[in-house]
Amino acid sequence: MKSKILFGILFGYLMVACSSDDEGTTSEPIPPSPTSFIAIGENDTQVLQYSYDAEANAGMSTNLTEAVGLPIGYLAIRQNDEVVSFYTFFQGAFNLYQWDTQQLQGMVFEQFYELTDERSVAWGTDLGNNVLFGYFGPFTARDLALQRVSLLGDAGTDVTIETSVASTSRPLTANERVYISYVDSEQDHKLVVYDWTTEELSVILNFGKQPFSFFVTENDEVAVLKNEVPPVMELYDAANLDFLNRMTLSTNLRFDSGPVNDVVLLDNKVYYNFTFAQPSTLTSGPAIYDLDSGDNVVFPLDNIVDEVEQQVEQSIGITTQVYDKVNNVFLVGFGALDATNRGGVFQLSEAGELIEVFEFPFTPTYLVRN
Fold first, then answer.
1. I want to staple 255 with a disulfide (CB 3.0 to 4.6 A). Which of 172, 213, 290, 335 is the partner?
2. Which H/E stretch holds residue 165?
3. Nearest-angstrom CA–CA distance, 59 and 53
4. pTM here?
5. d(Cα 66, Cα 365) in Å, to the nearest integer?
6. Which of 195, 181, 138 is nearest to 163 (CA)?
7. Dihedral angle of Cα 132, 133, 137, 139, to the nearest 10 degrees
8. 260: Cβ contacts below 8 Å, ≥ 6 apart
9. Could you give the C-alpha distances from 132 to 23, 109, 166, 175, 194, in angstroms and in order?
10. C-alpha span between 113 and 93 (Å, rounded)
């Protein structure tokens, strides 16, 4: 009996000792690891792509000027999934370069659309073998219309959005739809959706004299932000623009009117680029706005830039930035200020930690969205 009691006491002592050792042990937090990304940019004579593979811990550059003849100074860049499109204009006609950023191959459609006096082209976007132009016309009229052009040579189609329009913004494309904002001759601000599949327009939302900005959420909803006092966010169905919800924000997110490409609404948090009050050495920087708590966290980008400059031993300027919703990191592109065709990308965690700095021999101007 004594031996059993002694064993029980000893066993209990060992368990307490082990428990105490466990409680006293603190493990160091694991620092975030670099994630894969693709950056596109230019040097003095070429357009290039840099692809970083996190699993292989290796990066490679691809010369798009050599691969498909893409010149520097292109007019516009659009993205549909992994395909990035570049528009150029030469000798009265538009050229289109479609580049697959994963397969590293592309197609070129030279002078596929000749400009005429009948249509004054405001913007263009594409999906697969079709291009959609927004234009004013006919001739000197201010009717805002769309022209769908087939890259395969098939006959195109036109559809008028509205007559007597003052201005239109660049389009926002998502989920095989094109979102178009414009201001009519009465200075009313409006929004409409074009469906690539049905080739039809949605109803037109009229927001009156109030300018607005908008983006498409990860739940396939259109978020419309109005800079009222207090600021307001309204959610609409992405296909038919039916009203869904309205919420008051505690912070003005300071978006310019029209489409906002570099913003993500995920799990009731808005990941975006906060515009700094001027004068400032920086134009904007990564920020996270929590819709539930109302907290708005703006990263101290000036301090982070100082840290990056120490690593690269160069003064840098920020050229582009976006939140990568797949890998949960902010990607920030930069270029050297001494014009030596040096640039790179640095990655930031959601906590504002500097994860990694990547350098390559060109200045990135576009970060491919996941």
1. 213
2. strand 165-168
3. 6
4. 0.88
5. 19
6. 138
7. -120
8. 172, 213, 214, 215, 272
9. 63, 14, 20, 15, 10
10. 5
